[in-house]
Each structure stands twice: as C-alpha cells, then as structure tokens.
Write a structure and sequence with these properties.
Order of helices and strands: HHEHHEEEHHHHHEEH
CATH topology of the largest domain: Collagenase (Catalytic Domain)
Shape: globular
Largest sheet: 4 strands, mixed
Number of domains: 2
Strand order of the largest sheet: 1-2-4-3
Strand content: 5-15%
Mean pLDDT: 79
CATH class of the largest domain: Alpha Beta
Number of strands: 6
Low-confidence stretches: 1-31, 242-264, 276-293
Radius of gyration: 21 Å
CATH architecture of the largest domain: 3-Layer(aba) Sandwich
Amino acid sequence: MVARVVRAVVVALCVIALSVIPTPARADERVVIPNACTAAHPYDAASSLTDLKSGIETNWGFQLSGKYWTDETYRPLVAVIWRTLDAISCTPYLDTLHAKVGTLELSATSIGGWVAGDYGLTKADAVSLDFPQLLTNYQTDPGHVSRLFVHEMTHAYTRDRSSNPQYWADFTALFAKNGRFGTYGYSASEVFSEVVGYYVARCAANNPYTVSEAAYYNFAKNEVFGGKEFGPALGAPLACGTSTAAPDAYQSANAAVQAAVADREAAAEEIAMNGAAVYGYESLSASGTSDSA
C-alpha cells in the first residue's frame, strides 16, 4: 500500500510537470500539423477572420456557422483548423468525406459539460465544436484542437458504416484483433475516429502512436489517407512547431497515471476479497466512490 501512495505522489508531480511542458503557440506559428505535402493555402495571420471563415468554406467545401468564427478571441482555433484542413487536403480524406455527406456544416458553438465536440448531437448533420472549451485546451495542447476536430469530422466520414463498406469491414476486423487505441472509446466507431484523429495530430499530447500501434497507423495511412504521412515514419523523431515535441514526457506521465489506476483497481479488489473491515473502510469501488453515503 505504501508503494501505491508513492505512486500517487509521482502522478501528482507528473501532472504538474505536464502543465509546464508545452509552450502555448502563437496564432501565427505553424503549430501542430506536419503537412503531408506542401501547403496549398498557407495560413496568413494578417487575414481577417471574416476572410479566413470564407476561405475555409471556399477552399475546402464546408459551411461555417456560429459567431465564434469571427471573434478575435478564438483566432488561434481558427488558425489550427485552417492548418489542419490544409494539411489533409492533398490526401483522399476530404474528397471521400464530401462524397458521403456533401457540404458538411462546422458549427462554432458552446456545448456545455465536458464534451468539446460532437457530430450530429448538438446540431443535426453538423460537426459542433465548443470553442470556449477548446480555447482552454489550446493553451497547453494545441494538438488537442486538431485531433478533436478531425475526430468529429471522422464520425461524419463513417456515417455509411451500417452498409459495411470495405474500409469498415477491414477496420472492424482490425479492431476485433487489436482492441482499444489509447484511453478513450470502446466502440469501433470511437476507436476509428481516434485512430484517424491522432494520425493527423501527431503532435497532440498523449498520442498513442508508438511502434506497437503500427497496425492502426498503417490502416490510417493506407486506407484513409492514400499513403500520405503527417511527419516522419512511425517511431522516428517528430518535430512539432518550432521545437522537438516531448512525447516521451507525456507518455511517461500517462503511463504513471494508468499504473495508478491499475493500483487503485487492484486495491479495491483486494479490499473486496479480504473484507473492508480489515482496512477500516466501509467499502471502496474502483471508481473511487463509496457505496455508503
């Protein structure tokens, strides 16, 4: 039990360290997306937000709604979304997406709660993005904004999955063999969106892509993005923004957190097996909530 307490302290220190690792990027910096090819429409920090909004609609075939697109407070988010779309525009992704859904609506809104985005829930047939929440995320992890954006777009991308097209049959077979990807999502649909989102947002914190996830990486590369990669091959050093990313630091902290969760679950099982009275507890669940009021 002492070891578990020590582990908890380590986790707390890791969380503190994580808060100071990333340097918040300016809106005029190249932030989070190593482009798969030469940028077709480089982001221009001197452009007005009205022009950027119009540019996203014209260049990449979306319909933008919501007041936040033209609110200067949220320029960093618009910059990330612009760069993300430019980065993926030379791959088959956007053409495939639009062939399935037509002109997809991107709604800049405030959703409330912990959810930062969704497809078709807040607004039918639209990707809704919680700009106020995403701006908070951006301060320490600009890559999260790109990953979340691509994740939600990819739910629109897989809207045809009920007919079991070839890409979905291939993925579900892969999912049955490999299971979860990272720490979010249990369903094939959520895992697909995570696989694709992190493939694009290589610099996002806690990116699960290590050489052990080569099967998912190669699926995204070959079946979604036509062989294009966002940065070097998997396992090679990855440069993010103006400096080298620190994925090892994030992964180490994440590993510590996961180990602490495992310890907590093991402790709960031990208490349940031996009897709570032995430890002086009424009850303890793995989630940390007591069964008693």
